[in-house]
Amino acid sequence: MTIAENIFLGREFVNRFGKIDWKQMYAEADKLLAKLNLRFTSQKLVGDLSIGDQQMVEIAKVLSFESKVIIMDEPTDALTDTETESLFRVIRELKSQGRGIVYISHRMKEIFEICDDVTVFRDGQFIAEREVSSLDEDRLIEMMVGRKLEDQYPHLDKAPGAVRLKVDSLCGPGVDNVTFTLRQGEILGVAGLMGAGRTELMKVLYGALPRSSGSVTLDGREVVTRSPQDGLANGIVYISEDRKRDGLVLGMSVKENMSLTALRYFSRAGGSLKHKDEQQAVSDFIRLFNVKTPSMEQAIGLLSGGNQQKVAIARGLMTRPKVLILDEPTRGVDVGAKKEIYQLINQFKADGLSIILVSSEMPEVLGMSDRIIVMHEGHLGGEFTREQATQEVLMAAAVGKLNRVNQE
Fold first, then answer.
1. pLDDT digit string (tens) for 153-178?
2. Which terms does the record give in the GO molecular function aspect (predicted)?
3. Distance CA 80, CA 362 (A)
4. pLDDT at 248 over 70
5. Which of the 8 DSSP states describes residue 299?
6. I need a surface site. Which of 5, 128, 192, 266 has the fewest CB within 10 A?
7. Which of 358, 295, 292 is nearest to 323 (CA)?
8. Does 130 fall in a domain?
9. Strands of 221-223's sheet, edge to edge?
């Protein structure tokens, strides 16, 4: 369906003959897109848009109702800084018109920038309501998680081992001549602006997108990944940035989601499942990951975003990978669950797992990574040690103003 059809679904403009007035519908949809500084036509198919642009279309749809009260639940999850500022401009305009905005977010910066009052819930219970001007970030975080977070990004200082993964001159859709290495027990951060090719690079590496040239060597052996099944078979696991579309089956249970890609480990020679072994493994991961669920039979769609993400990561670990790719692992996750995910990542690192951390949050990349590469327009824009990397350095590389720093 087109953008206009999505925005006005069930509310189409009709002419005096009872037929859809396409001209008016596209014109009104284009006006909504212009309000959000979007430069594409409403005749474009939604399926052809990036996740961030799809989110902006959803916001345009909300604006089309002209409601007195608008609820926005994590509206900036997939947005760039520029798109976020466009949204904030619209929110301020709506506020000046007397509209009420309920703005749900885990991002501290946004709360302090756009909100007048803040209400905190924890584990389904009301905790407090305060004027934003009366709080600072540390106090708000303490209210949210019930404790102080002394170290938001708990980096594990441990020397990495031998080179596990070597990517040489990799090319594919949105990826051009990218070369990097990853060591055993190392966290490699991947930064860059939206559309720079971060996710595309990971999908080509994993086998979800076709590789046109280049080579991938794992533990000294060249591997070919023509499909995600090839990636899994070679010990490469990719946890998608869009867990609800690519990572999880929301109508299935926690147990079914967690064991879905690892059923071969619970299968008998005849093909039947060892249900007790499966249940024991799922139970162990639920306990290890501190997944808050009434039971493993609970539909995963009913869990919080943080617990869904833990299940997605646990599913990847069940396949016993050598390389774990985490694409936006804390998107839409509250600060308490973020802390738990960071601790799990450090535990995987301590166990010798090689981890690639893709994130649009620079503090997260800087705080958790041992080494960082930056993507720029499908190319490798920079490579930096933890000591060299700052937000200014990464941003310069992300916009193509800094050459790659060669490492020993």
1. 888 999 999 999 999 999 999 999 99
2. ATP binding; ATP hydrolysis activity
3. 12
4. yes
5. B
6. 128
7. 358
8. no
9. 175-183, 163-172, 213-218, 221-223
